[in-house]
Design brief:
Elements (H helix, E strand, L loop, with lengths): L3 E5 L3 H19 L7 E5 L2 H9 L3 H18 L3 E4 L8 H5 L9 H11 L4 E6 L1 H5 L1 H9 L3 E3 L3 H13 L8 H16 L4 E5 L3 H5 L7 E4 H13 L3
Parallel strand pairs: 1-2, 1-3, 4-5, 4-6, 6-7
Helix pairs in contact: 1-11, 2-3, 5-7, 5-11
Length: 230
């Protein structure tokens, strides 16, 4: 079994889900008392968020790149960044290491293709929804991406940073997110990417008429399968 290097804390709320899903997948595949070999480097999210807000991409890349290098030096066979947004600096992070970085958008695109999705909605932080680093990976797989309008982008981003990353789960926000998802469905989306690792905490168990692709679950499960050589 390979050792998985997790960069967590972005936010720590969803890092918990990664740890659970990876271990449950290993248990499911191997049985008995098997669990995953994991190294975790948890960063200070406030520092990362400040770099995001100030568009200091090179600083966040250095913090996460050095975290990846430390994980590799400690024995990690792959790196998993437990967040969607910070994959905006994935190419820079990969330069710090020689082990593979398992890209969350590429793994999500694989699942979309398996489900024969030709047009997908995307919700996440404003960076994920409006910048090309994430959408480009999905579109490269031949899948059209639609995002919420400007008002809904601001709303979704607010809930993520001011509520979900702080562990606050409100029914009103759950209803609001489901409304945004319904609008994307009405715009022709055959499925919706939950493109922030905290969103599943809010709507992951909701019954909807459209397929939801929870990137946290996809990323974590595929990391476990990578560790098993599958």
């Amino acid at each position: 079994m390979k050792t998985i290097g997790l960069i967590g804390g972005i936010s720590w709320e969803s890092t918990v889900t990664y740890y659970q899903v990876i271990n449950r997948t290993i248990e499911e595949k191997l049985g008995g008392l098997h669990s995953a070999k994991i190294l975790l480097y948890s960063v200070d999210f406030d520092e990362i968020e400040c770099y995001q807000a100030n568009n200091e991409r090179e600083k966040s890349a250095e913090v996460l790149g050095l975290a990846s290098l430390r994980l590799q030096c400690a024995g990690a066979d792959c790196i998993v960044i437990c967040t969607n947004t910070m994959h905006k600096v994935a190419p820079q992070i990969q330069l710090f290491i020689s082990v593979p970085l398992l890209h969350i958008a590429e793994m999500t695109a694989e699942e979309l293709k398996k489900a024969s999705i030709a047009k997908v909605g995307l919700i996440g932080t404003k960076y994920t929804m409006t910048e090309d680093f994430y959408r480009g990976k999905i579109e490269k797989a031949g899948i059209e991406v639609v995002v919420p309008d400007e008002q809904d982008v601001a709303y979704v981003n607010h809930v993520i940073y001011d509520e979900l990353c702080r562990g606050k789960i409100y029914q009103e926000s759950r209803d609001g997110f489901l409304n945004v998802i319904s609008k994307l469905h009405a715009a022709g989306a055959q499925g919706v990417i939950l493109g922030c690792t905290e969103i599943g905490l809010l709507v992951g168990d909701a019954k909807t008429t459209i397929l939801l692709f929870d990137t946290t679950l996809i990323h974590a499960r595929k990391a476990a399968l990578f560790a098993l050589g599958k």
